[in-house]
Amino acid sequence: MSRFTVHGVPGSPYVRAVLLTLEEKGADWRLQAMGMGHNKTPDYLALQPFGKIPVLLDGDFRLYETHAILRYLDRVLSAPPLVPDDPKQAARMDQLISITNAHVRPEVSGAITFARIVAPKFGIPIDESTIPPAIPAAEKCVAAIAELIGGQPYMAGEAVSLADLMLVPHLDYFAQCAEGEAILAPHPALGAWLSRMRARPSMAATGWDRLLEGVEAA
Q1: How many whole angstroms separate alpha carbon 202 and alpha carbon 162?
Q2: How many CA atoms lie within 13 A of 204 on its CB side?
Q3: Could you report the per-residue pLDDT of 58-107, keeping only the tens digit for each?
Q4: Which domains does the chain possess?
């Protein structure tokens, strides 16, 4: 029986960030998959009163808020460490996690990726007129991240950190749509980072289709 249970919708970048962390740590986990909208049901609100995903269960310990979950997993699970010891690298990690939450989620994933990648999978109609006005903010966001990574292999330095695991689910999906491909193209270092992250076994283990296969098999 898996120690960790994650409640969430397959395909959610925040659910995937938690699963990536568990995979990087070599931990056993189980996804309690939910359908779109299930996060507003009474049963789920009993776990997460704000109706957000994911929720982590570790035995009788229940935790929500993705950043808190990632920090907890890094503390309770063994190597590799996913928080840098160097104070400046740790600060850069925290900065990029904040950028992901404050800017990438609404300005990239919410404004463009949802319409191009998520909505079609669920048959949700989209308003095409909302996408062109969203592009300048997405360009600014991507450019800022590209500047911060510079020539480093990973977001906070030479090793994968929680910043990479929080950010890559968003940019992995974003790169799959035409607007994302065009916005990422002027930033080769960011493209190289995305290729490195996509090559990690944790990414293959937590892909949308892979998770859906697991749900169907169960």
Answers
A1: 13
A2: 4
A3: 999 999 999 999 999 999 998 899 999 999 999 999 999 999 999 999 99
A4: 4-81+206-217 (3.40.30.10), 87-202 (1.20.1050.10)
**Alpha helix segments (H runs only) across 37-109:** 42-47, 66-76, 87-99
Distance between CA atoms of residues 52 and 168, nearest Å:
20
Helix (H) or strand (E) holding 21: helix 13-24
What strands lie across the sheet with 55-58, from one edge to the other? 29-33, 4-8, 55-58, 61-64
Separation between Cα atoms, residue 174 and residue 178, nearest integer Å: 9
Q: Which residues contact 92 (CB under 8 A, 6 or more apart)?
A: 148, 155, 156, 157, 163
Cα(179)–Cα(142) distance, rounded to whole angstroms?
12
What is the DSSP secondary structure assignment for residue 81, as one 8-state letter? P
Amino acid (one-letter) located at 207: G
Tell me the per-residue pLDDT of 145-204, one tens digit each, with 9 for 90 and over: 999 999 999 999 999 999 999 999 999 999 999 999 999 999 999 999 999 999 999 999
Among candidates 74, 77, 78, which has minimal Cα distance to 97?
A: 74
Q: In this predicted model, what pLDDT tens digit does every residue of 111-152 receive, in sequence order?
A: 999 999 888 888 889 889 999 999 999 999 999 999 999 999
Cα separation of the two ends of the chain: 14
**Cα 180 from Cα 160, distance rounded (Å):** 23
Question: Exposed, middle or buried: residue 59 (CB in 10 Å: 0-12, 13-18, 19+)?
Answer: exposed
Residues 6+ apart with CB under 8 A from 77: 22, 25, 26, 27
